[in-house]
């Protein structure tokens, strides 16, 4: 909208004010204003944080411009307030001002900052921004707007009254506070006093008011009677014994045995190992390794379809390990997610091993996905891919909760590479990681005659999790299943309240991981 207004301090001066969302190109104006407003409190927000806020929640970042120049702005995020509670600090609830705490499914619009160019005083720009925030809150159907408010006038009265007494005096209008008085006039209520909210705020002596504005138009969603998002998930892993199979039906029957068993225990997912169908390579005759893997690829579509059928029939999601797939003359290693609703998606192995490239002429895929399932957001990295931390970091940035790693290793040191990297992925990305492998002998298959395997589920390392960050693990080289319940709520609590907070404390102003391939 555009409005022409006369500035009371500058007679005969016309203004053309426009309320809009902020853009990355506005940073120069934002920096200029913040340097003027916060010259004694650290100055402007770094550009990296400004860009992060805009990228995370562009709809919540609002400004007012005058003839193309930004003169006031407001930053905000949506949070699930129960995950923070009233006893939070400014840095905690704003993700160190990177807005990493933004939750599209949250219930509160939390104010990060509001500021205006000092040259435009008495134009009530702050009121316009607050009204825009209220409109945003209503349109998003959020319960409330909350913020921590500075009380810069308190420094002059700190010797004679407590923060609570000062706030009461401001409410009675006995004392004028440049921030609190304005917020109270905009229908905000003081919920309580926060201590240590912004320790560097010397004028407020580190105190702040916890402010709340209720959205009277808020309509609580009715609780779902079934199909609601799950807070726990039951992971079922298959430790698969390699043995001689005479045909594809033998492989399917063995897979169905495990799917049936895990379904009986009401698992949400069944994870099979990488190349669990490798015994069928022995049906290629006396050909070389390249001919054997290409022969194995001829069974992939049939096995994938059978796995999808069983996922629906047994009401369990199935990650069909991985299988070779020939597409337009190119061989890939592909993991299939067969959901129990009948849909199927694929994750291609990004990094073929030197053996796969040399002996099988296998190529890597160019797409990395986080999959939405009825038990949470999952990522799938096939074996060697788990040893590249950038991939899991990209998945974690898309809110992955569980990482599933089907693997196939021949020696114990090969297995330990996968295991140790999987444990590191769980710690650094604050997620659960399940690895599932195979063991046994395939004497009739060239170059893949031995395997070593031990299946496990790992957690982050903090007080809410097992002391060794291992949820459970199998006996090595024994055919069996592993069933583990994981608590997804603990992951979110860890991000906000953990002993260390790898996700929140990342120095986004110094480095980042960027995906350059297909989305």
From TrEMBL:
UniProt key word Flavoprotein: no
Q: Which UniProt keywords apply?
A: Hydrolase
Q: Which domain of life is it from?
A: Bacteria
Ranges of residues in domain CN hydrolase: 233-488
Q: CDD domains, alphabetically?
A: NAT_SF, nitrilase_Rim1_like
Domain N-acetyltransferase stretches: 17-217
Q: Which Gene3D superfamilies match?
A: 3.40.630.30, Carbon-nitrogen hydrolase
| Matches recorded under InterPro entries | Acyl_CoA_acyltransferase, C-N_Hydrolase, C-N_Hydrolase_sf, GNAT_dom
GO function terms (MF aspect): hydrolase activity
Q: Could you tell me what this protein is called? A: Bifunctional GNAT family N-acetyltransferase/carbon-nitrogen hydrolase family protein
Q: Which organism is it from?
A: Limnobacter parvus
């Amino acid at each position: 909208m555009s409005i022409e207004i006369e500035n009371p301090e500058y007679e005969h001066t016309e203004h053309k004010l426009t309320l809009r969302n902020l853009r990355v190109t506005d940073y120069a104006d934002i920096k200029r204003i913040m340097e003027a407003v916060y010259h004694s409190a650290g100055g402007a927000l770094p550009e990296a944080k400004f860009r992060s806020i805009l990228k995370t929640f562009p709809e919540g970042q609002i400004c007012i411009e005058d003839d193309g120049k930004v003169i006031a702005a407001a930053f905000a995020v949506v949070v699930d307030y129960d995950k923070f509670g009233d006893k939070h600090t400014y840095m905690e609830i704003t993700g160190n001002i990177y807005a990493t705490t933004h939750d599209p499914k949250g219930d509160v619009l939390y104010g990060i900052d509001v500021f205006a160019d000092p040259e435009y005083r008495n134009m009530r720009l702050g009121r316009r921004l607050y009204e825009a925030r209220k409109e945003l809150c209503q349109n998003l159907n959020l319960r409330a707007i909350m913020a921590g408010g500075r009380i810069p006038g308190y420094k002059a009265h700190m010797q004679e009254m407590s923060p609570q007494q000062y706030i009461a005096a401001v409410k009675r209008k006995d004392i004028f506070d440049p921030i609190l008085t304005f917020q109270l006039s905009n229908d905000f209520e003081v919920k309580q006093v926060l201590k240590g909210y912004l320790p560097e705020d010397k004028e407020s002596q580190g105190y702040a008011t916890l402010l709340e504005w209720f959205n009277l138009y808020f309509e609580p969603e009715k609780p779902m009677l079934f199909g609601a998002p799950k807070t726990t998930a039951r992971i079922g892993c298959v430790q698969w014994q390699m043995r001689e199979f005479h045909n594809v039906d033998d492989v399917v029957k063995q897979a169905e045995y495990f799917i049936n068993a895990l379904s009986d225990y009401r698992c949400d997912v069944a994870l099979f190992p990488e190349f669990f169908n490798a015994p069928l390579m022995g049906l290629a005759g006396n050909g070389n390794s390249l001919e054997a893997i290409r022969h194995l690829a001829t069974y992939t579509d049939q096995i994938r379809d059978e796995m999808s059928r069983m996922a629906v029939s047994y009401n369990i999601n199935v990650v069909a390990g991985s299988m070779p797939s020939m597409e337009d003359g190119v061989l890939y290693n592909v993991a299939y997610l067969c959901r129990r609703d009948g849909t199927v998606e694929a994750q291609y192995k990004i990094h073929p091993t030197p053996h796969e490239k040399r002996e099988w002429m296998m190529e890597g895929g160019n797409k990395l996905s986080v999959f939405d399932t009825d038990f949470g957001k999952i990522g799938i990295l096939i074996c060697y891919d788990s040893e590249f931390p950038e991939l899991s970091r990209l998945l974690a940035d898309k809110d992955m909760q569980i990482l599933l790693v089907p693997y196939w290793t021949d020696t114990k040191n090969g297995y330990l590479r996968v295991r140790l990297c999987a444990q590191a992925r769980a710690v650094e990305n604050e997620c659960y990681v399940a690895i599932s492998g195979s063991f046994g002998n395939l004497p009739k298959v060239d170059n893949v005659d031995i395997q070593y395997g031990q299946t496990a589920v790992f957690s982050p390392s903090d007080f809410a999790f097992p002391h060794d960050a291992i949820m459970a693990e199998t006996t090595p080289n024994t055919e069996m299943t592993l069933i583990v319940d994981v608590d997804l709520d603990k992951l979110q609590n860890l991000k906000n309240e953990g002993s260390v907070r790898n996700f929140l404390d990342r120095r986004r102003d110094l480095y980042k991981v960027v995906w350059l391939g297909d989305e």
